Amino acid sequence: MEKVKATPTKEFFISMLTRDVPLDRAVLDLVDNSIDAAYLAGDIKNKTIDIAINRDEFCITDNCGGMDKEVAINYAFKFGRSKSDARDTPNSVGQFGVGMKRTLFKIGRQFSVKSSHPNGSFIIDVDVDKWLEEPDDWDFSLVPTETEDAHGTSIKVTQLLEGVSQNFSTELFVKQILNDIEKAHFKAIRKGVVIKVNGSKAGKYDISFKASEFLQPICIVKEYNGVEYKIIAGVSERILEDGGWYIICNGRLIEYANNNTKTGWGQAGIRKYHPDYAYFRGVVEFNAAESELLPWTTTKTGVDVDNSVYRKALNDMKAAMKEVMSFLNKRQKEDEDFKNELIEHKPLNDALDSAQIVGFEEVKINHSMVTPNTAIRQPDPDPSVSVQYRVKKKRIDRLKEALGLDTNKDVGVHTFEYVFEQEVGDE
Q1: What is the rounded CA–CA span in Å between residue 315 and residue 296?
Q2: For the segment 323-348, what is each residue's pLDDT rounded down to a tens digit?
Q3: What is the pTM of this model?
Q4: Do the beta carbons of residue 117 and residue 66 sit within 8 Å?
Q5: 3-state helix, strand, coil in the chain (%, to 5)
Q6: Would the pLDDT of 95 be above 50?
Q7: Closest among 355, 84, 320 to 216, alpha carbons compared
Q8: 136 pLDDT exceeds 90?
Q9: For position 63, what pLDDT does the model report?
Q10: Lowest mean pLDDT segment, chosen from 9-13, 115-119, 287-291, 316-320
Q11: Are 368 and 218 in contact (CB under 8 A)?
């Protein structure tokens, strides 16, 4: 019996590894690793991550604790991993074991990784073209170095790929990266991590809700299959592009203002998203020690809708949506009734206008949305009724022409008022 070779080539492996991840998301993978290191080191405050990009090179440097040499040798640079290889990094975001390698290969043909860590420091230099010349040798060479006082990691990539070089040279891409970081790692930034891209500091961002004594979002916490999830649903400022669901996995924002079927819009009796619901805000925060249980894609660019934990949470999300949308429908009807003088005050709209803005982490547990009672409609002392009768079309057309009117309805109203005045007189 002869064996058929099924060993992958390095070129094929790199192509498959890098093809489906956008460049900005690839850069975020390296930020994920720095954030993980900061949490692993303990105190996340005063940690810094500096990114410098231009048409010739990419650099990311942090003081977040560095990479353990043993981790580098046995885990961090391995192409794929088994369960036994997994390092003990609870509640991490860089759990897939491919992010750093994928990013380095996607950006350029030469890279170096330098790390200072209490358990051993090192530098790894890789010339990708030379590495490709040895088809059976998949390992990289690690050189031990002296441990520096400031523990951290520095990664530099040169010989950038053509498309990468073009993107890195544009101001628009730099702004996009900064914006992505502000949102993806908004929780870490609010806790004190400073992240800069070409010297520009990532600003603080938050997901906010309106809350007061009379208006409170729904807030529930549940656990399923080793994952805790927290759902908050309520209202905020009326901003069309900000309305929808925000999904967070272990502190990493992976869905921003999602308002399509993925998060329940247009399903199970829930209307499609439209401007009337621009007040809506929803947050689902998933947390798990074993981060592979979380409902996100391997590129962390969205939620995995087939994940059993997400399907479970989605049922609760839909129930919460219905409560909030019911409030918003009543608010709109209340506004119309007030304009038509059918009610004397607007408790729902007043509560919405006067409520304070609070961050989502300040929202308290509420199993149902807290809202004011609706105003009681005043009975109409002189209700309107419809008057209907049928006449020949030719006759109504002649009368419209004679009266200078455009519609059958106009003729009906005019003739009623004329007969009423002749036969009844003043009201």
Answers
A1: 17
A2: 999 999 999 999 999 988 888 899 99
A3: 0.82
A4: yes
A5: 40, 20, 40
A6: no
A7: 355
A8: no
A9: 94
A10: 9-13
A11: yes
The answer to whether 130 and 145 are in contact (CB under 8 A) is: no
Q: Which residues contact 231 (CB under 8 A, 6 or more apart)?
A: 218, 219, 220, 221, 222, 282, 283, 284, 313, 316, 317, 320
Fold of 208-362: Ribosomal Protein S5; domain 2 (3.30.230)
- Please tell me the CATH superfamily of domain 10-201, with its number: Histidine kinase-like ATPase, C-terminal domain (3.30.565.10)
304: Cα within 13 Å, side-chain hemisphere: 15
In angstroms, the CA 227 to CA 213 distance is 32
Residues in the chain: 427
- When comparing pLDDT for 415 and 51, which is higher? 51
Residue 138 CA, chain-centre distance (Å), reads 36
Which residues lie across from 283 on neighbouring strands?
232, 246
pLDDT of residue 138: 85
Distance CA 58, CA 62 (A): 14
DSSP string, 185-238: THHHHHTT-EEEETTEEPPP---EEEE-SS-B-EEEEEEETTEEEEEEEEE---
Beta strand pairing call for 194-197 and 121-127: unpaired
User: CA 262, 263, 268: angle at the middle one, nearest 5?
Assistant: 95
| pLDDT > 80? residue 86 | no
pLDDT digits (tens, 9 = 90+) for 193-227: 999 999 999 999 999 999 999 999 999 999 999 99
Please state the domain extents for the chain. Answer: 10-201, 208-362, 393-423
Q: Is the pLDDT of residue 23 over 70?
A: yes
| H helix intervals, 340-392 | 347-354
Please tell me the distance from the alpha carbon of residue 358 to that of residue 335, in angstroms, as a whole number.
25
Q: Label residue 96 by pLDDT band (50, 70, 90).
A: very low
What is the pLDDT, as a whole number, of residue 80? 61
Burial class (CB in 10 A: 0-12, 13-18, 19+), 33: buried
Tokens of 361: 């982490």
Q: For residues 240 and 258, is the Cβ–Cβ distance under 8 A? A: no
* φ/ψ bin of 355: left (φ > 0), alpha (ψ from -120 to 50), beta (otherwise): beta
- For residues 310 and 318, what is the distance between their CA atoms, to the nearest angstrom? 12
